[in-house]
Design brief:
heterodimer, A: 553 residues, alpha/beta, 21 helices, 17% strand, B: 199 residues, six-stranded mixed sheet, globular
């Protein structure tokens, strides 16, 4: 078949979903998952044939869109980063009870080491929590192969299947061998006699939960071939999962003596307890190499049959990314000395906002407005996006960043507790993601908050995907019932500084909720012409509307 | 029988300099030369003017680990001199460093350039390249990356024709002039292959 497509791990998942005959792909951008959606989106654009790819306002919406496609009887892919699954958890956990009709695969990309994230939570724990299967590839080819398999499993077991990646694999580029592409073939909508399975009123949900638990042994059976036990001659063994598997395999290539170690290799959960027992019977001591939380390590440790080494006993650092070096150190393999590190003191080169970025002008206006009112010590609640970089010295313009959408709600909470001023800074895409319900509460509460929406018209940080709230932010805000006087659209440019400072000060002085929309397109997307076509069409539409005879008086 | 050796290349620079696209050219060229190759990259926030690095591993047998250890890289290609110093310890004792002299100083506390050059010249196997001067002579402002790749290519088991093919395909969408200029820059870099300038 088509050998040698070069792809990232995340892209391989998207590619496999296309080849598995999906009807729809959905997601919300988030490093390192973004490329999974973008790859399948490009494939679908090139050959739509009834397929759709659609970014969603947030991960929960994306997941529910996928669940809808599944209900309609088609295969579907939904993509997100690990913390995005928190947002989609309500949908994910409950879809375990409804089950699926068309195969539903969830690509979730974890970020151990927090390269681009606020935590390093392990999605395998959420799959376990939801009683759902999780496949964990360790190479780009496995990303592809496991995704194809996941669609079959999803339909065979009638449940969603998670494909869990980590940053190293999601952003590993390698050659890929593809299978023939299946055309989307629908199973038809959920039949009348099975509709109650999808109606999670308590009387139905109780049955569905029992049925979900009853499916567990079958899940284990279906996954059995993906988890393997290799006998060895040593009483010291290794238990491997994900990148731990990849790193060990390569190490074994360079150190053939490692073949003596009995080896438990896991690529799918839930794991057969009998397989674990068979492995433990062969060893007195085991090293566990898995990426992120000590999931497998804790399971093996609980059995209490042998010494278990890993993150819990400090053989491997408790936090951060697993590295091949950690495997070598734990196994006592010598590393050849290399060149000495530079003795020169090397200051960090931190990422920063681009020169000419509109966010810089918005923060200038905010900080000058606060200084002018004698409020230099004011605490500003920030959010997730490029503008998070303003939390760094020397700007120090935001003083809390927690999770998507938190800025507005935290500012409202602080305002209700008496904090003056209570300021929130949020991007347009994050506003669409989860700022909307927070603002509704802000308006309802009448709390004295000033909300700055930094509208750069795209999802800047993840690669300038179009923002779902494109050019509609102020109308959305007004629709929530804020008076027009409390909603201003401002142009973040150095030449507008005085006017912007005045507008921010007016908003700060107003004793209720105010919203300031600072709108100027991201200079990266402007350079790439991301919105060029959109803006041209929009201009043509407006001209048409104003000149067409039907609308003339 | 000796164990198959895994070779590693580290590429580094500053967000926006084209580190990742250079890494992709290297990956593709190795692959077309019949080698098994993997590339690892970190994107996201780091692209906003921060430090960026990528790794390419290759061997004559299939590989599964996309990253290499400290002290095991054969080659470091650095688009920026200070960034090069961050990764020197990734190199084997006899590894090579190909580094652009032109600094990207828009950060706090950039050390005196003379100190940076002295530290680089103290690295055995270092090749400092005056990319600014070469870019001027080639009348091609962004020639730096391709010049470095040209010199670095002399340390890699890839035929020149394969390099030219991969580079040409990479720049093809940008037109024949862009392709021609990048190939010129690559050849200029290859022409620099002499003794290391380092200690």
């Amino acid at each position: 078949m088509m050998e040698g497509t070069l792809a990232l791990g995340a892209e391989a998942v998207g590619c496999a979903a296309f080849d598995a005959g999906i009807k729809g792909a959905f997601g919300y951008p988030g490093t390192p998952s973004t490329e999974g959606f973008e790859f399948v989106e490009a494939m679908i654009k090139a050959a739509p044939e009834g397929r759709v790819a659609q970014w969603a306002a947030n991960e929960k919406v994306a997941y529910d869109l996928a669940l809808g496609v599944s209900y309609a009887g088609h295969r579907t892919l939904v993509t997100m980063k690990h913390v995005g699954l928190n947002v989609a958890l309500d949908a994910y956990a409950n879809s375990a009870l409804t089950g699926v009709r068309g195969g539903l695969v969830l690509l979730v990309a974890d970020d151990p080491g927090m390269h681009s994230s606020q935590n390093e939570q392990d999605s395998r724990r959420l799959a376990e929590f939801a009683w759902l299967p999780c496949l964990e590839p360790s190479t780009v080819q496995e990303c592809y192969d496991f995704t194809l398999r996941s669609f079959e499993l999803s339909e065979a077991l009638g449940v969603p299947v998670m494909v869990r990646l980590v940053t190293r694999l999601a952003h590993c580029r390698a050659a890929l061998t593809r299978q023939p592409t299946l055309a989307p073939a629908g199973l038809g909508v959920v039949p009348r006699e099975r509709v109650q399975e999808w109606v999670l009123i308590p009387s139905n949900a109780r049955h569905r939960y029992v049925e979900l638990l009853a499916k567990q042994p079958r899940m284990i059976r279906e996954l059995v071939a993906l988890n393997t036990l290799t006998a060895g001659t040593s009483r010291r063994g290794v238990a491997l999962a994900g990148m731990g598997r990849a790193y060990f395999q390569q190490l074994a290539l360079e150190h053939p003596a490692l073949a003596a170690l009995p080896r438990l290799e896991l690529a799918a959960y839930p794991v057969d307890p009998a397989l674990e027992a068979a492995f433990l019977a062969q060893v007195d001591e085991v090293y566990v190499f898995e990426e992120d939380y000590p999931v497998l390590e804790a399971r093996l440790g609980l059995r209490g049959t042998c010494l278990v080494h890993g993150r819990l006993d400090g053989s491997i650092p408790r936090t951060g990314e697993l590295t091949p070096r950690q495997l070598k150190d734990a196994l006592g393999l010598a590393a050849e000395p290399g060149k000495a590190p530079s003795s020169l003191d090397l200051p960090l080169r931190a990422p920063r906002l681009c020169d000419g970025c509109g966010h810089l002008d918005a923060f200038d206006a905010l900080q000058e407005a606060l200084r002018g009112l004698g409020l230099s010590e004011a605490r500003v609640f920030g959010d997730i996006g490029c503008y998070t970089l303003a939390a760094q010295e020397p700007m120090s313009a935001i003083h809390a960043v927690v999770e998507m959408g938190a800025s507005i709600s935290m500012a409202v909470g602080a305002a209700l507790a008496g904090q003056v001023p209570a300021v929130a800074v949020i991007g347009d895409s994050t506003f669409g993601h989860s700022g909307l319900p927070a603002l509704l509460t802000a308006v309802d509460s009448g709390a004295n908050v000033t909300v700055l929406i930094l509208d750069n018209r795209v999802v800047g940080m993840t690669g300038q995907q179009p923002s779902q709230a494109l050019d509609r932010v102020e109308r959305m805000v007004l629709g929530m019932g804020l008076p027009e006087a409390q909603v201003q659209v401002l142009l973040p440019l150095p030449s507008q500084l005085a006017a912007n400072v005045q507008a921010v000060q007016d908003a700060l002085r107003h004793p209720g909720p105010s919203v300031l929309v600072f709108r100027r397109e991201c200079i990266q997307s402007l350079r790439r012409g991301v919105l060029k076509e959109h803006d041209r069409d929009e201009k043509a539409r407006l001209e048409q509307a104003c000149c067409s005879p039907e609308v003339q008086p | 029988m000796s164990e198959p050796r895994v070779h590693g290349i580290v590429l580094c620079g500053v967000g926006g300099q084209g580190v990742l696209s250079l890494a992709q050219i290297v990956l593709e060229a190795l692959r077309r030369s019949g080698l098994f190759a993997l590339q690892s990259e970190i994107h996201g926030m780091s692209q906003r003017g921060g430090s960026v690095h990528a790794q390419v591993c290759y061997a004559e047998v299939p590989l599964s680990s996309p990253i290499i250890d400290e002290g095991s890289a054969d080659l470091l290609i650095a688009l920026e001199p200070l960034e090069a110093l961050r990764y020197v310890a990734m190199l084997r004792m006899n590894g090579h460093l190909v580094v652009a002299e032109e600094p990207q100083k828009d950060m706090d506390g950039y050390p005196p350039l003379a100190d940076v050059y002295a530290a680089l010249k103290a690295v055995r196997g270092a090749h400092l390249v005056d990319t600014e001067d070469l870019a001027r002579r080639l009348h091609h402002r962004q020639a730096g990356g391709m010049v470095l790749l040209g010199l670095a290519s002399t340390f890699l088991p890839v035929p020149n024709s394969t390099w030219r093919e991969v580079i040409a395909q990479r720049f093809e969408p940008k037109g024949s002039l862009v392709t021609k200029r990048n190939l010129e820059a690559f050849e200029a870099g290859r022409g620099l292959a002499t003794a290391p300038t380092g200690a």
